[in-house]
Protein: Glycosyl hydrolase
Amino acid sequence: MSIQRLSSFASSAAPFLIIGGLLYAGFFVKPEPKGDAVARPAFERGDRLYGTTVQPDGKILLVGNNGKILSSTDAARSWQYATVPTHVSLQDVAAWDDKRAVAVGNDDVVVVTEDGGTSWKRVDAPKSKIANKLMHVRTAPDGHAVAVGEGGVILTSSDYGQHWASVRPEEDIAWNDVYLKDGHGWIVGERGRILISSDNGQSWREVAGPVKSSLMAVSFRNGNDGVAVGLNGVILASHDGGATWSEEPFRSPDETGAASAGDAKDGSITLYERGKTEHLLCVTWDGKRWIAAGTKGVVAIGDAGAEHWTGARLSPDDRHWYTSIVPGHDAYFLSGSRVVAVPAKRLVQAAAIEKAGEHS
Structure:
């Protein structure tokens, strides 16, 4: 073979030799790590963490947009990512015990865990013909659970979320929240509508409510005494198991500061004169008082009888909204457009300052 032909052959074969070398490197050459791996931050720009629950062992579970699920075992100081089989937004999460929990969200997705929230699997659930968004879920003893959402959807499970059934015809309404306690259940939704159940959510009947604005959350501290909150700062109270409701006066804080309880940087809250009304999106009973939260960092603190309410903000410049609040061992965990832990003692201190101000 002549030198000229060899040169021509080498030139024509060069691209194939380069490609072959790259393939070899891709399959057989293992890159050496350089420096420490960059850890993915728990909270990223654009995150929305809609639902929160605290398991009996104190572990916190958070769910949010893009199928994100985080867990913390050290009171929210550090977070771990879970393995989740979906990328749709998850709206809420609830736990039965330290191992078993369920999360629901857009596209009527339902995922369950049996290892404390480390890994999750998707389970089948009835699809709505009107809308496909589950808003909230609650668990009850012996594997019971109820999930509610848009299109009037109400789903129930009695086997720790493995199977679900629809228990009420669909309609043009969004049920925004559900609460279960001692075999009873309560659901609130758009246009001030309220449903109650006495058989663990298997059947529901509607009761009259005093407002027409949308109710966003409901909670009961026993079989009789409960609170529902909603748009425009609405607060309703019931003392007969949800059969009747009364509206309680509340005006959320405006922009003019009046007093401060601690340094806002450490999770404390700042009190304000009553004025502009903000929306209330979640409510809980902590064993001593009612706590509700909503838009622009507004927090409402109510007494056991749910008759007297104090308005506050998490900080003077807080413009975030919160769709979930759960009491922990020594703090309240709020999630929504951001996640924050508020020391319980600060909240109690703030309520005392406001009460003193009202009587001065």
In short: The helical segments are 3-28, 344-358.
